[in-house]
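Q: What does the assembly look like in three dimensions?
Context provided by user:
Components: two
Sequences:
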Amino acid sequence: MTSLLAAEERAPSPPSPVRGARAKNVIFLMMEGGPSHIDTFDPKPALERLHLQEFFRDGKTKSAMETGKRYYVRSPFRFVRAGLSGADMAENWSHLATVADDICFFRGCSVDSVNHPTALFQMNCGNRFGGDPAIGAWVTYGLGSENHDLPGFVVLPEVSYPQGGAANWGHGYLPARFQGTPLRPRGSPLLDLAPPDHVTATMQRKNLALLATLDAAHAAVHPGQDDLAARMSAYELAFRMQMEVPGVLDLSQETARTKELYGVGDPATDSFGRKCLLARRLVEQGVRFVQLYHGSWDSHDSIQRAHGTLVRAVDRPIAALLDDLKRRGLLESTLVVWCGEFGRTPDNGVRGGTAYGRDHNPNAMTIWLAGGGCNAGHTIGATDELGMTAVEGKAHVRDFHVTLLHLLGLDDNTLTFYHAGRFKQLSQFGGTVIDDLIA
Amino acid sequence: MGSTGRSIVVAALLGCALGMSARRGAGAPPPDAARAATDHERLFVRRIAPLLAAKCAACHGADPSAVDPAAVEGGLSLTNRESALRGGDSGTAAIVPGDAAAGTLLRAVRRDDPGVSAMPPKAADRLSDEEIVWLREWIVAGAVWPDADRVAAIRARHADEWTEEDGVTIATSGGLSPAWDARRYDPAGLWAYRPVLKPAVPATSPRAVPATSPRAVPATSPRAVSATSPRAVSATSPRAVSATHPIDAFLEARLPAGLIPAPPADRRTLVRRVTFDLTGLPPTPAEMEAFLADERDDDAAFATVVERLLASPHHGERMAQHWLDVTRYADSGGFANDYERGNAWRYRDYVVRSFNDDKPYDRFVREQIAGDELGPGDPEKLIATGFLRMGPWELTGMEVEKIARQRFLDDVVNSVGETFLAHPLQCARCHDHKFDPVPTRDYYAIQAVFATTQLAEPAAPFLPTENTAGFGERAALERAREEHIATLARLDAVLLDNAARWFTEHGKDPTRWHGAVAMARRRQEEASRAGKRRRPYADVFAEARRQLLDGGEPEEDFPPKLVGFTPEQFGLERVARKGLERLAFALERYEPWALAVYTGRTREYKTILTPLRVPEDRMTKGEIEATAILVGGDPFAPAHAVKPGVLSVLGGVAPNPIPDGIEGRRRAFAEWVASPSNPLTSRAIVNRVWMWHFGTPLAGNPNNFGVTGKRPTHPELLDWLAASFVEQGWSVKALHRQILGSAAYRRAALHPDPRAVRALDPLGTGYAVFHPRRLSAEELRDAMLMATGELNPAVGGIPNRPEINAEVALQPRQVMGTFAAAWVPNPRPEERHRRSLYALKLRGLGDPAMEVFNTPTPDFSCERRDTTIVTPQVFTLFNGRASHARAVALAARVLRETGLADRADERAIDRCFFLVYGRPASPDERTACLAHWRELEIEQAGITPGRVRPPPVVRREAVEENTGETFSFTETLHAGADFVPDLEPADCDARTRALADVCLVLFNTAEFTYVD
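A: Here is the predicted structure of the complete assembly.
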């Protein structure tokens, strides 16, 4: 009991990271909805001959989505071998192809859930049912933040929040300061960052001064109450953030050339281009973990049209991000992750007729990494000939999480937090580092 | 008392549940059992075998209780000597007998060899130094490894002797392995399973226990200062031993030596404390004055206040807030759809009523677990079972039904355990509990209790006690419904037009199509007339396609589904179709249904897209689930069958067996939970109530009395409270009176010698001083509304929708297949300004102003709220519109009340202080605030504040799933029609607005946000 108590008191200062890790920051590109590996980075020529061939699946272990009359669907995209490494890419990733050698593709991952919010929770938090700390919270807890005027874990969501909402970037049982702070794409980037319009800066300063006077008198007669000081400094920090944050977010400080590289200004790429450019600026400012959302990639009915548009929206911005990070010498210390919550099936269900789309697939997906000491220029693991399930280099998402932490110098087995009777960790029950993903 | 004595006492107290070395199926000892064990055999049996089982077996054992019996990490099995000597895939032996340095095992557990992975992997599971010494000694001595029979014999022979030092074994219904059954527990960790025996109240020393509070507080000084004044302490007189409150006697017995309790809080502080505590609201100035003016002694005056508050309808609201934190109340189901649970509010109000009526707690427990079985046809009892539905749950077409059903069963078992028994049970889902005497068999026995529990929204007529006001708002939902139906009709027409074009473009013959369309149209019209429409909207196009498909027509001969839709139309179709589905759940709110359960067979559903009623054939259709231990918690891996049961560690408590027919399982289980002899139930609730009053529980984890939970700081007091509670008929109000009557509760938050407190009571569990607490999010909002006079005190009823941050309100939110409706505040201020308890609580859309002040997520039971200090709180409270609105409202109220009388400005500042803090301003404060007011009036004079109105419609943009393209649609915010704004700065002159700046500052001060 004594040891548990002591450990609990100790918990808020996690062990120092392992020396020698190259990654210090993470930019996590979350393609919410489940991008199809079969139509992006994992070609399946065998589907050509099975195209539209029908079959029937049933069983109590399957969901309504997976059962009934089904048929195979070939990919509408042509594939190329990109870069010196010859990475497989659908040809519509024309910009990303130029940085193919900086990327490590991983085809071995699987998750436990076949539906969006649960799979997304698992990818983000390790646990299917939400409520646990997000990986960004763990990383910020483990490494701290280098900019004390900005949150350490920033999320750039879509205008529309994903299924499961803000729990995807929650702090769970970790202290609240590790919560992901969404910088909103429209309106006030942080909620209530600025007072209502009629409040001038002078009024704000004067109000703060009166508050400081009253609070100081209160604190003076409450000598035992430490949180009063913390509270007073929170007001000071808030005022600094109010001044500083708009500047960090202001992309007008970037050159026209840079903005063009990211696709800012082109309606097709503007939205995600802005996010990628902002992510780079945030990392430069010392923000530890930036998670970008894009979606929805949930193309049940029309892969060609839907994935075509989606790839176009992110291809140029992501390529520009990798290129820009490299030119600024930041790619080495910044781990870029691209994934969805699961992959998609080689077959589709008949829902009122044929549509060339794909259902959810927790057993096969493509994740890729760039920078941060990953094994760039390699493709790790493989799925079966139809892309239904991973067969080589198989790893559960918990192993992937453990590997991400490892690249950051963090050990999932020591990065734990005592809560509800046990020491909890991102991987839930421990995992194995996937060595092949590391340079 | 020596350790031997202690063990024996423990064994006796646990009665038949606990016997030394009790094991099932221990056969006759084998012949060589008589041979005396060597030291190292004994070392193995006593230390090494349990160590390997606890620390290694999950990955390196064939132990069937391991997560996955097939998995042997690294090819290394530590189940027998041969395989340990052989080693794993690395080819190196784990153990080399006689040579500690050679094998990998010792190096792994010492965690200091870079060439060998540290084990166990998780640092928190590391072996203690003592355990490493044992392991080393055992290896050096040759790693003797007796066979199973000999292990059993040695264990039996030495059981008594080892019990003395190693703790006790406990009899349960039986774990999956003999090793688990033989596990030893530190008796101290088993405190919660022991019967509650009412301890004698300790004698107290006749030393100074201050009995009276300093009433003569100078009216102008902040209450904080008065309590520390030396005069306040010296004014007290020692009280006779006989008059010491039992609670104080128990606390004094454990008070750190040399620590003198703080004096009583002054009356002003005390009434603010107890009013927030019992009602979640501040005292009104009149209530404050009445208490200050009460000439009677402190005890009598305070008792009157307590009775008044306990009788207030707001008391039940405050208690419900606490209870609903534990039970995870929300008005929606979470996950992909986050469908509204239209009638969850009736359970919320049931909880409020129960606390207000002082319903005996045992009845409250029984009703929530089995109300439907206890009182068939009684709406009140049916509504109570809403408790069983509080977890997030849904069944979509993307989830396997059996897994979804299992999620409910797992949720409800754990929830019952945490809520009523202070015992989380989920750890025993995949294996025997790693720390507590809870075999996985018990987990599934309790699950079997719920195997005939089915989810539904049964009929439950509204009760006269229920607040059914405001149902008129459903008109807004009906308007949205009509709009969706109209959209779908319009889109159906578009599809039919597009189909015609498709035939032209593709040069196909449309004859058969025309026939199908005509037939579909006719059928839908007929169905309409007969009131039997399959869907409430026109879908002639889809129906015609269905006919042709079913008739075997080749697909390429007629148009594809949703032919020719633009991205916009794709999006609109979904929004309308799914919107209708969603509205059906929201419209439940105004109808006499209950979010509840029924008893019956389990039916098959592929998806649940509408509220469910109780089927007529509930007892005959469907399967009777045969509950079994599930290997690894997997519903497709049933192993041993189990019967409905209870926690077997409390073997002595079960008076009646749980039936295993369809009906009556929960009723019998509820009787067991609420039995006076169940030691967990009464301890759990008195511990919670104690925490609600003091901020700190006696046992540190109110949801976990198991081995890993914190042990009680005052075990005798906890038991005394639990026993008294049962004696007093499980009356929660009697428990409140008892606790509030103690001197400890009435102590000042300021100690004359804070350094002594810190030195002598570093963990703050001595109760020598009252710990100040920050107001909860709900109290902050409610107290602000109370200060401004805007609070609508109506109790109960359908949830309201206050104004939340406008950007969040309109934030598009993806739910399955569509977007959830926007948050539309109620049109009238009095509807918006209800207590925070009543605000619509959607799992997918939290009010950020509440969350930032630590309201818990409704996905997990919250045993105790956090109080963190983070910067976004400042943005909310200092910049947020709600704060500014309250500040303006307070300023306007005060100026209205103080008028233009003599020294009006001074009086206005004083009035602000009264309404915000419950005290007048000190001269310094008055001067500072007056100066601020005047300065800001000059600033404000140059400003013309704008007006902000919620938009009547919101234009939504989103990525459409079929095309990957952006589409937009317009959502009309029907519920926002006739919106009447709160008082706005634009309504006020510069003087009022400047006073509002003073008010805003007061609302942001520590004095307002904390209660001493």
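Follow-up: The longest strand of chain A covers residues 25-32.
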